[in-house]
Amino acid sequence: MHHMDAFLINGLMKVLKFGGSSVGTPESIRRVKRIIESQSKPCIVVVSAFQEVTDSLLGAARMASEKNLQYRDLSDNIILKHKDFIEKVIVDQTTQKALRETITSLGAELREALDSIYNSDTLARELTDQVLSFGERASSLIISCYIEGSIHYDSREFIITLRNSGDTEVDFDLTNQLIINKFKNCVGLIIIPGFIASTSFGKTTTLGRGGSDYTAAIIAAALKSEKLEIWTDVDGFMTADPKKVEKAYTIASLTYSEAMELSHFGAKVVYTPTLRPVYKAKIPVSVHNTFNPDSPGTAIGDTRENGNGSPIKGISSIDHIDLITLQGAAMVGVTGTSARLFGALAGHAINIILITQASSEFSISFAVKPSDSTSAADAISAEFEKEVLLNKELKINVEKNLSIIAIVGEKMKNTPGISATLFKALGRNGINVIATAQGSSELNISVVIKHESLTKALNVIHDGFFLSRYKEINLFIAGTGLVGSSLIKQLHSQASLLFDNHKLRISLIGITNSRKMIVDKKGIPLESCREILKNDGEKANIGEFIQRIKKLNLRNSAFVDCTANAGVATEYGDILSGYISVVTANKIACSSDLNYYRKLKGIASERGVRFMYETTVGAGLPIIRTISDLVLSGDTILKIEAVLSGTLNFIFNEMNSNLPLSTAIRKAREKGYSEPDPRVDLSGTDVVRKILILAREAGYDTERDDVKVISFLPDECFSGDLNDFYRCVEKYDREFEERRIDLLKNNRKWRYIATFENGKGSVELKSVDSEHPSYHLEGSNNIVLLTTERYRELPMVIKGYGAGADVTAAGVFADLMRVFNV
Ligand code: ADP
Ligand code: ASP
Ligand code: MG
After folding, report:
1. pLDDT of 166 over the 80 cut
2. Range 786-815 average pLDDT
3. Residue among 42, 44, 45, 43 nearest 2 (CA)
């Protein structure tokens, strides 16, 4: 056993604090015991209430004050839970019995306090603190019985608060003296409850939620202990709250100021006032994980280190704040307005989290806890009664449902461009900054945003400042036909490669077809998404689907359209406006009204997202990209001549004496070359759309009427349904066969050629001789000849598979990768 004199003489002792999450279950209590037993130095151990107990106690107090009798059941349950715990961890029967009796009497006190609340008209803080104290008193007693040879002390004997309230104001002169006196003569391992304190009159108080950290720091500072260790359920102080930012990682070291700043702005891993006393006493602090004791944790001290290369150390947030703005001409140049304002707030003990003043001095805004909001507004209304009510020179405005995010780091001072990175990350993701403030120490920049965007904002900021382990892409797919299914298969088979080589993780968040839809924030497994859609999906509704995915408000999002549906195409504007990129294989949006096409491009560039449609022409062939690159680099497209229908090329290549036109069409459909409705190909509609898209990409303002179509099938074939169509084509099978033989004799072939030149397009079935570049075009291939200023004599040729679900899906995949700069 260690002799306690050493405590004070040499500072050779440590203070260890175990939070509620470390003492939640009998299993974790065993871990705590192992950690304590492995210490080579004497220590004082501060413990929190068992996990969730403080919340339940607070719930019971509220119920009692609302005259809800269920507080009795709730308190019985809390007491029972502790007795269960005792049974599970304490082996010795005598100890067990004694401890249960202690809990019974603590329970009686608890019940008495709750009954008093029930019988009184107001929820007095004094009584609430009495109720809350049960948690730490019970847990510390149980733990000290469990850890043999330890001594239990009640912190109410030596931690004294100034006011009888739940406040954190500690009477340090008195407290420090009492602590020194208390521990001067003690020996052994000491276990004490965190969080609870008392007034100098002996009334129980508490140090505020999360206050056990503070208890430990106060003791460590008073005794000049060698070290303070905070043991919790995460590996240390992290770059952000891991519950909100999955990619957050542990920070190796922080200065006191950085850690204080982060905890001031919500990093609850260390309770806000905790670091003040240890900072003054220069006591090194570290944060560790009870569930991973071997990991190095975070060291908090004096040394500045910038291990991770980022100019900031961490990001924290306060989830709920209200922003109060005092605004009006009376603010301008009137000295003393701020003094009056803050004087009024201080008079009502309102804690101001952040202040910002517009440079015009027309307004001043400050953030407060929502629970302080009403009294803050009342306080300033009273102070400025004359200006607000009589002269109407000032207005008070309260904005609710807001959050604050702060980025923190000492290195920020010397690094330009931090705000730019911050605002760019937010802006690009459609997150509006309502107010901003920079701490005068330049240790932090904070922004106020809508609460609904908090998680997204934290994540995009984290992505912006920290090299992340991976990038996450959130995907929404419409269409599970041939292209959609093939894409899903390809995504699935590439997934691990993309993760290993490009640190890219693809999450399918939503999927819909014409029958069913499903949106799941947690992600839908690619390998079984089609079955899940079929079995668990709800009735499809594309409008509703889009609204839901927009509401999710996820970063790095892309919507992939693998349908040929006009209804889906009309949604793109809405999708892009929601900062979601669109990748489409559906030609309709780009080939309908020129204005719509322009509008989509406009929204995409305004929002900083991508609108990609490479596969609308020539499947996976790099046609649109090539034209766009040529134009961007200053070339002019003079003429486009192309075979753009893989389907028609396949049909005319396949036809022979045993395979008439109608059968060749059926075969093209079966092979998945044609559009779902092959008439779209046979009528020329599909090719018209494609040449229109190319002409527009080449910079021409082309509308559909600018493209002339000469049909090779009579109009009558297109008047009925699909069966009528096949029957009608059959009537012409013989005629086409005869014409084909004629062509063959003359060494010519049919090619369905689209041309665009001088602002006009045409689409026509032509016969070409062996000199023509398309003569040897096999199967379902496409060919595009681009005559440009630079490629005038010999046109540039792009040629290859131009149809088929797999190549189209691969093209969509490639577009998707380009969206995210892979
Ligand atoms: P304890 O019960 O040990 O006091 P808390 O729940 O009070 O634990 O604090 C630990 C929690 O703090 C973590 O589980 C984590 O969700 C949250 N947290 C918020 N910000 C951070 C951060 N920057 N680093 C680590 N944890 C954080
Ligand atoms: N048990 C108290 C709370 O939950 C104190 C603490 O855990 O630090 O707020
Ligand atoms: Mg805590």
Report:
1. no
2. 93
3. 42
AA letter at 421: T
How far, in Å, from the CA of 381 to the mean position of ligand 2?
A: 35
Residue type, 203: K
pLDDT of residue 209: 93
Q: How far apart are the C-alpha atoms of 647 and 471, rounded to whole Å? A: 38
Residue 407 β-bridge partners: 315, 445
| Ligand 1 pocket mutation, candidates 249, 269, 289, 444, criterion most atoms within 8 A of CB | 269
- Is residue 54 within 6 Å of ligand 2 at its C-beta? yes
The single residue of 17, 182, 244, 690 carrying the catalytic annotation is: 690
Query: CA angle at residue 80 from 78 to 85, to 5 degrees?
Result: 100
> How far apart are the CA of 19 and the centre of ligand 3, in A?
6
Q: Which of 363, 267, 276 is nearest to 316 (CA)?
A: 267
Distance CA 69, CA 63 (A): 7
How does residue 5 score in pLDDT terms, banded at 50, 70 and 90?
very low
Strands 395-408 and 444-450: antiparallel
pTM for this one? 0.76
CA separation, residue 12 to residues 183, 226, 510 (Å) = 13, 6, 58
| Cβ neighbours, 10 Å, residue 745 | 8
Q: What is the mean pLDDT of residues 369-393?
A: 87
Ligand 3 centroid distance, CA of 21 (Å): 8
Ligand minimally distant from the alpha carbon of residue 211: 2
Give the burial class of 357: count Cβ atoms within 10 A of its Cβ; 0-12 exposed, 13-18 middle, 19 or more buried.
Answer: middle
From the CB of 194, is ligand 1 less than 6 Å away? Answer: no
What does the buried/exposed string (b/e) look like for 562-571 if buried means 16 or more CB atoms within 10 Å of the residue's CB? bbbbeebbeb
In testing the pocket of ligand 1, which one of 241, 249, 459 has its CB within 8 Å of the most ligand atoms?
Answer: 241
SS3 220: helix
Phi-psi region of 454 (alpha: psi -120 to 50; beta: other; left: phi over 0): alpha
Instruction: Return the residue matching tokens 């009204």.
Output: 593
Distance 303 CA to ligand 2 centre (A): 29
> Which atom of ligand 2 is closest in space to residue 19's alpha carbon?
7
Closest CA relative to residue 34, chosen from 16, 50, 48, 12: 16
Which residues are CB-neighbours of 260 under 8 A, at least 6 positions away?
272, 275, 276, 279
User: CA dist 773 to 96, 443, 647, 754, 783, Å?
Assistant: 93, 66, 18, 14, 8
Structure tokens belonging to residue 531? 């079955």
Identify the top-confidence range among 381-395, 428-442, 452-466. Answer: 452-466
Rounded Cα–Cα distance for residues 259 and 275 (Å): 8
Separation of CA 140 and ligand 2 centre (Å): 13
CB-side neighbour CA atoms (13 Å) of 53: 32
Q: What is the mean pLDDT of residues 413-440?
A: 87
From the alpha carbon of 238, which atom of ligand 1 is closest?
Answer: 24
pLDDT of residue 358: 64
Question: pLDDT tens, 211-266?
Answer: 999 999 999 999 999 999 999 999 999 999 999 998 899 999 999 999 999 999 99
Ligand 2 lined by 801 (C-beta under 6 Å): no
Please say if the pLDDT value at position 164 is more than 60: no
240 CB near ligand 1 (under 6 Å)? yes
Q: Is 739 in the pocket of ligand 2 (CB under 6 A)?
A: no
Q: Which atom of ligand 1 is nearest to the CA of 314?
A: 23
Given a contact cutoff of 8 angstroms between Cβ atoms, the answer to whether 748 and 768 are in contact is yes
Between the CA of 271 and the centroid of ligand 1 the distance, in Å, is 9
Percent of the chain whose pLDDT exceeds 90? 76
Which amino acid does the sequence have at 288?
A: H
Closest ligand relative to 269 C-alpha: 1
- What residues have CB less than 8 Å from 624, skipping those under 6 apart? 613, 614, 616, 617, 693, 694, 697
Active-site residue, 690 included = yes
